[in-house]
Design goal:
2 copies of one chain form a homodimer. With about 350 residues, chain A is α/β, with parallel strands linked by helices. Chain A contains 10 helices and 15 strands. The interface of A and B includes residues 259, 262, 263 and 282 of A.
Chain lengths: ~350, ~350
């Protein structure tokens, strides 16, 4: 057993898109395992778009990562030492270890993972936070009804995968938007979406034209993962009493306001009013109480093959920054993980 | 009894703010009173911001007024002939007569008004559509809780008057925004608002500075009547889980998109997400089933003096266009009515 751990810290804040110099790999001594604590050797680390927000020094729903602090994130791995009766060496645990190959956390901040239920890394994806986000947001906020039309960007991402497949199971028409022909084919052929539009190189006007074909009855639910031109294209096609679920806006995470852009707000505001839309921002961590219901409902459907998923895995802690930067540009395909 | 009526029709569509030439006064023969119909001599006509939308030839929740068509609107007056057993001459009735001094409508499209309950013209204001809009939106969509802070533009308008006073009765801190010192003094002294900010000549930044003083605990509910710089000033001060109720946006009704304006949408979208805001567009005509509950709840509070109101009345059908254009510029003070 090693007595050091490797970790990646925030070396500096990005001015727009993150670059290598914003990250630094460090080796530090392993923490001593205090009373009630559990030491985990991490096997998989999750990469998620929300991490981009933590790199900014601005008010958000969570504090920013301080300069020199370990980048935040969730991981899953094997318990190698425990000072808590709830965990034994050999157990699998998931928690917020950060971008590090080991993590020592209080037992109450860990979730025990059953490796017999599904591969342990799915606790970071389809039956982890991204899947839970999709399930909760769709069912509790989207109020989906059979026959309605749902549009989702980042269709083949970790959240979109679950949202779209679950909506199909509920009888909705599902139109995805993704980057590139391969992802679009996957969304239709493997995930069972009714259509998938390739957004690459298209303006809001061009996307609107394709959406009108794919959504002949308009759009009832828009799952907002992306922002950008897709959002512009969608707003004019929302049906009365439609629901817009704001979960992320990856296209805008790296963007500064454009002083020369058309002012879109009046158009959006007017559509929200005229069509009686509801727009609901949400953060899944407000809804932990629903997590067990989610796992109980969704895990069996994955085991039964009704819900599929895909992973985009690189190996080695040092690949985290590159994989993260690629994900923000849409280079990943499925749930982005790093295997240690 | 006259055999003609006067009415104002839409002569042409405005390109931005309406002008006199967009309206034309006509004299036409009175309609014959058909089976089940009721003829009303109108005493008061209502002027409301939504009428601006009807002048545009664009998709909205209601059809536009056609060129040459009578301008839409609600009025109240005395029944002078009836072919329906539910109405007798001498009764008072409210309905969508348009901008006209007489109206002949099916009885089922009229609401009988009890002149003993309150002055008949209040059926167009504080206990009519504007008051109902405020009551329904605040209670059903705003989900107000004692101790929270509510901000409302057009504070002394027909809707704002009811929203602010009702919120005060429910124990909220109420901050109004209005045009000019006289309206602001009225909001605080007569309507009992905790503060009122004069928006005239102020940028979004200046309004934000004043809002921070008036709302030391942030903003929980924003009643959107106005759009414009106030909306920009509010968004950054919304508390987590705040509610934005989109009822109108009078500042934007006459406005074309500004190609040189800062693109506000990403900022708004980000705040909605990060603060888990809900934004709900609504149109009161979806909620007629609640009208009787509203009248039953609010009318006694008006009679008791807990809720006050103010009217801005001009005389003569020919004053409708000028009074309407003035209202869009904020020149009215209270519910805008024209007495015939």
């Amino acid at each position: 057993m090693t007595d050091t751990q490797q970790q990646i810290v925030l070396a500096s804040r990005p001015s727009s898109a993150p670059v290598d110099a914003n990250f630094r790999l460090e080796t530090v001594a392993l923490s001593a395992v205090g009373q009630g604590e559990v030491l985990v050797r991490v096997q998989y680390l999750s990469l998620d778009p929300y991490m981009r927000g933590r790199m900014n020094d601005t008010k958000s729903y969570a504090d920013p990562v301080p300069i020199g602090g370990v980048m935040e994130g969730m991981g899953v791995g094997e318990v190698i030492a425990s000072n808590d009766p709830g965990f034994q060496p050999g157990d699998f645990a998931m928690g917020g270890f950060g971008w590090a190959d080991h993590g020592c956390l209080p037992a109450k901040k860990l979730r025990k993972i059953d490796p017999a239920l599904a591969p342990v890394q799915t606790s970071l994806g389809i039956i982890g936070l991204p899947g839970f986000t999709g399930w909760y947001g769709l069912t509790a906020l989207g109020k989906p009804k059979a026959g309605e039309t749902l549009v989702i960007g980042s269709a083949t991402g970790a959240v979109g995968t679950l949202v779209g497949q679950w909506a199909r199971l509920l009888g909705l028409r599902v139109v995805g938007v993704a980057g590139g022909a391969e992802k679009c084919a996957y969304a239709v052929e493997k995930l069972g979406f009714d259509a998938c539009i390739d957004y690459r190189g298209k303006t809001a006007e061009a996307l609107a034209t394709e959406l009108k074909v794919a959504c002949p009855d308009g759009i009832d639910i828009y799952w907002e993962n992306t922002g950008g031109p897709l959002t512009e294209a969608v707003i004019e096609q929302m049906n009365g009493f439609g629901r817009m679920i704001l979960c992320g806006m990856i296209a805008w995470y790296n963007e500064k306001p454009k002083p020369d852009a058309e002012n879109l707000l009046p158009k959006f505001w007017r559509n929200i009013l005229v069509n009686r839309l509801s727009v609901q921002g949400f953060i899944i961590s407000d809804h932990w109480d629903q997590l067990q219901s989610f796992v109980a409902e969704v895990a069996p459907r994955i085991a039964a093959g009704d819900i599929t998923y895909r992973e985009s895995i690189t190996e080695g802690l040092e690949t985290m920054p590159t994989a993260f930067m690629g994900m923000l540009e849409g280079k990943n395909f499925g749930k982005t993980l790093v295997k240690l």
